[in-house]
Write a structure and sequence with these properties.
about 5% strand; two-stranded antiparallel sheet; 12 helices; 2 strands; mainly alpha; globular; about 300 residues
């Protein structure tokens, strides 16, 4: 059994100390400041990234179906205000002919900025790895565009599934002689696909963004925990914005931007906390052999 596996199994005995160390390292790494930077650049990137993706994908799938899919998943990021972002994207798509080559390149650059900042934030969290090995700058330059392609592919796949479910909505399945209607399955399937896609996306971020090799099991645990935390947080945000929030009264027409920024920053905090958990486990795995060699025990 590997040292990392033994470290993970020992965590329940000292879970309090482990959590305190994670929070301490997160504070020392200026996690809230990093989360704010990620949120700002994500807000700057999300609209041009979606516009470029939909311009390309609309040649393959009906534009309204794509916009419906985007709205469904934007609701997971900006609860209650996804429609505002979608309408902005819809308005731009109507005038898509104004985008020239220069405009396309500028939007492509802005689309990648969130991933660039996220990689830099991960470098701070995993500084112990960066000191030992560094990533080639060409790899860092390519990673954001690979993720943009993957996100576009995910939107395309979900749109195809959503279209197929709408066509099957009025049909029935016979299971052991019992007729089971397919009405209402549309939203459930999209939600499940969203959860699976979220776990896979976060797992891939934990695998790819840090320098060096992160074990798949660690990345998967981080992805599942971060998804669960975000789903809980998102539901609290939906309740808060719909019942107690004064954001519309205070910020008026800026409310959508403020809510989006706050929601994305909370998501970034959860993302970086998951990364910090993996980093601490990784550090403990590296510290354990040295403690055994020196005869030091904790």
């Amino acid at each position: 059994m590997s040292n990392k596996s033994r470290d993970i199994r020992r965590l329940p005995a000292g879970v309090g100390n482990f959590i305190l160390r994670v929070l301490g390292e997160f504070r020392r790494n200026q996690g809230l400041l990093l989360s704010g930077a990620i949120a700002y650049y994500t807000l700057l990137s999300i609209v041009p990234m979606l516009i470029l993706s939909l311009i390309v994908l609309s040649r393959l799938v009906d534009e309204e179906q794509l916009l419906q899919t985007v709205t469904t998943y934007l609701e997971m990021v900006t609860p209650g205000y996804a429609g505002v972002v979608t309408e902005q994207i819809r308005g731009f798509l109507i005038h898509r002919q104004v985008i020239g080559i220069v405009g396309f390149l500028v939007m492509l650059f802005f689309s990648s900025m969130a991933f660039m900042v996220l990689e830099n934030a991960m470098s701070v969290i995993f500084l112990h790895r960066v000191r030992i090995q560094r990533r080639h700058f060409l790899v860092s330059a390519i990673i954001p565009y690979v993720y943009i392609f993957l996100l576009g592919s995910g939107i395309l796949f979900v749109s195809f599934v959503a279209g197929a479910l709408e066509k099957l909505g009025n049909r029935q399945l016979m299971i052991f002689g019992i007729a089971v209607g397919l009405q209402g399955t549309h939203g459930v399937v999209l939600y499940v696909l969203g959860m699976v896609g979220e776990v896979l996306m976060l797992t891939s971020l934990y695998l790819v963004m840090p320098v060096g090799r992160i074990t798949f099991s660690h990345a998967l645990y981080g992805g599942i925990i971060a998804t669960a935390l975000w789903e809980s947080t998102r539901r609290v945000l939906v309740w808060y914005y719909s019942t107690l929030s004064l954001v519309n009264l205070i910020y008026g027409s800026f409310a959508a931007a403020v809510v989006s920024l706050l929601s994305i920053e909370l998501a970034a905090v959860i993302l970086l906390l998951g990364a910090q958990v993996i980093a601490v486990i990784d550090l403990e795995g590296k510290e354990a052999p040295s403690r055994r060699r020196s005869g030091f025990r904790t």
